[in-house]
Inverse folding.
């Protein structure tokens, strides 16, 4: 399934049209595809080449792989890069997860052979550095640190994950627009090298000696796309309206380079104008702040008009929905409440977040003391900089980075990827269901018969894509792995039926391991014994009332102490 189309920007379209090289109709805006940059970067040292030698190294890699044909498998990649076979398989699986459309020969899981052009682009962007957060205006206020036993004290663990997030408030963290601008600037800087890597050599002189076919040009859709979903080749005059029965003639790479740079420049100018307008107006609408910022202390219901899905703002990336800044509340989001194919849960505290919908991607960032249920994610879940959260997720893949004291109840088809500076993580099998879960899993391609929740794949602590956690001169070590949750501490999670939605799923579709089943049976047997003993007590009515009151009081105390009293309020409605 291809990426969803985005909203176009009239201003950017007009600017691009004025720049030339597009169809006569108003042109959609050129945007970076965020998925490769957000979910496709792997902290594998041998995939990250120094920028000064990047093009030369990848050209040599292309020469080594090309004799094997236009497709590359994991074994060939492992041999060419001198990396373990499991890391090569991880790279191809990650590539498959961030492609704009499924490649049948590679497969959804990356078990097949990748197109060499896609693979080169994937490895190239491993040199990308994420945007660094701007400094906090009141740094002394966040100078307190969490004691840590990390090998990187003073570098990685000076702040705990959530302190790091809080030390850079939402206003000072990179916005969606800032990140998109940063990605476009990266592509603008590197596009000449990227095209050289993809181009074919022909007889000729100067710029005419390097050409791109229309098919190769379309592979740039891995990094760039148009806001209305138009194929790249249909927006460029040198390929537009080509006869489908006649292959389009290759065009000089220099012509393609000029066309792309014109459109990137137009998009960057548009973003800069919008940013300046926002800075100059106290009442300007921030396209990256959702309504939840204004209602963080109230319950957010999926039928509420103040939902957390991002509004339709022309010119910005909008095939994602957001739940952001929630505190001491519950949020319910179903498929009808969400826009696009991804969800981001950001900076939520002491809340319960229900995402009961089929999606491709999900990000959980900067949350603490929160339970987050992710119904069915067909590509990747990424959890970063979280503390004391419980994540209940059914997904193809999950990546966990820089988290502490978190529990992950997982139904995952691939090994959980653990990277960065983590501490005291626990994993457990998936533990819930809702009526439409089975349908949602089938819709996004998650197989409930395969669950690798207890087989973490652990990479290094240092993230080469993040300059904050990659100080010069610090060598890498393997990240701390996760332990399996004690079966005696495992409990099923009940999702309330707010809207009485009918569906075929009546139980957890992921099979529990026997040791967890045994623990559940033991708990049920204990409960039955307690109930039986209470029923058989030979006491008068007054004593029965006292016993009932004592049980109710203890249960009420537990509801408040655990925060679950909020769930009862949710069941009662607004």
């Amino acid at each position: 399934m291809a990426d969803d189309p985005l909203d176009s920007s009239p201003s950017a379209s007009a600017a691009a049209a004025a720049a030339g090289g597009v169809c006569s109709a108003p042109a959609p805006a050129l945007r970076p595809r965020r998925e490769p940059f957000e979910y496709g970067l792997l902290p594998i040292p041998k995939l990250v080449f120094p920028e000064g030698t990047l093009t030369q190294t990848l050209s040599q890699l292309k020469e080594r792989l090309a004799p094997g044909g236009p497709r590359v498998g994991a074994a060939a990649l492992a041999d060419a890069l001198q990396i373990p076979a499991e890391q090569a398989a991880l790279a191809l699986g990650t590539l498959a997860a961030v492609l704009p459309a499924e490649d049948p020969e590679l497969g959804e899981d990356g078990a097949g052979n990748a197109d060499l052009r896609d693979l080169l682009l994937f490895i190239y962007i491993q040199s990308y550095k994420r945007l660094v957060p701007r400094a906090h205006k009141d740094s002394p206020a966040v100078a307190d640190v969490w004691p840590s036993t990390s090998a990187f004290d003073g570098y990685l663990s000076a702040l705990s994950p959530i302190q790091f997030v809080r030390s850079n408030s939402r206003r000072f963290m990179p916005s969606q627009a800032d990140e998109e601008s940063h990605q476009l600037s990266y592509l603008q800087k590197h596009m000449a090298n990227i095209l050289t890597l993809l181009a074919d050599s022909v007889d000729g002189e100067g710029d005419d000696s390097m050409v791109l076919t229309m098919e190769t040009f379309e592979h740039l859709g891995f990094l760039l796309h148009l806001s209305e979903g138009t194929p790249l080749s249909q927006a460029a005059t040198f390929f537009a309206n080509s006869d489908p029965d006649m292959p389009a003639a290759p065009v000089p790479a220099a012509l393609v380079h000029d066309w792309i740079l014109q459109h990137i420049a137009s998009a960057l100018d548009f973003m800069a104008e919008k940013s300046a307008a926002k800075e100059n107006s106290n009442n300007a609408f921030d396209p990256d702040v959702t309504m939840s910022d204004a209602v963080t202390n109230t319950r957010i219901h999926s039928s509420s008009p103040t939902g957390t899905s991002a509004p339709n703002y022309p010119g910005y990336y909008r095939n994602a929905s957001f739940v952001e800044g929630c505190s001491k509340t519950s949020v319910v989001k179903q498929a009808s409440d969400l826009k696009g194919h991804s969800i981001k849960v950001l900076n939520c505290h002491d809340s319960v977040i229900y995402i009961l919908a089929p999606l491709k991607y999900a990000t959980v960032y900067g949350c603490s003391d929160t339970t987050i249920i992710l119904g069915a994610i067909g590509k990747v879940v990424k959890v970063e900089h979280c503390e004391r959260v419980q994540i209940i997720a059914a997904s193809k893949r999950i990546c966990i980075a820089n988290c502490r004291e978190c529990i992950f109840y997982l139904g995952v088809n691939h090994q959980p990827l653990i990277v960065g500076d983590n501490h005291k993580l626990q994993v457990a099998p998936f533990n819930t269901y809702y009526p439409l879960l089975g349908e949602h899993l089938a819709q996004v391609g998650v197989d409930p018969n395969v669950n690798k929740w207890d087989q973490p794949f652990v990479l290094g602590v240092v993230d080469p894509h993040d300059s904050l956690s990659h100080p010069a001169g610090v060598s890498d070590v393997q990240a701390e792995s996760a332990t399996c949750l004690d079966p005696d501490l495992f409990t099923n999670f009940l999702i309330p039926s707010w809207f009485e939605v009918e569906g075929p799923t009546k139980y957890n579709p992921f099979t529990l391991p026997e040791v967890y089943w045994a623990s559940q049976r033991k708990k049920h047997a204990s409960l039955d014994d307690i109930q039986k003993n209470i029923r058989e007590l030979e006491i008068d009515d007054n004593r029965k009332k006292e016993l009932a009151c004592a049980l109710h009081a203890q249960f009420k105390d537990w509801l408040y102490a655990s925060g679950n009293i909020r769930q009862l309020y949710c069941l009662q409605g607004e």
Notes: Residues 30-132+175-240+247-267 form one domain.
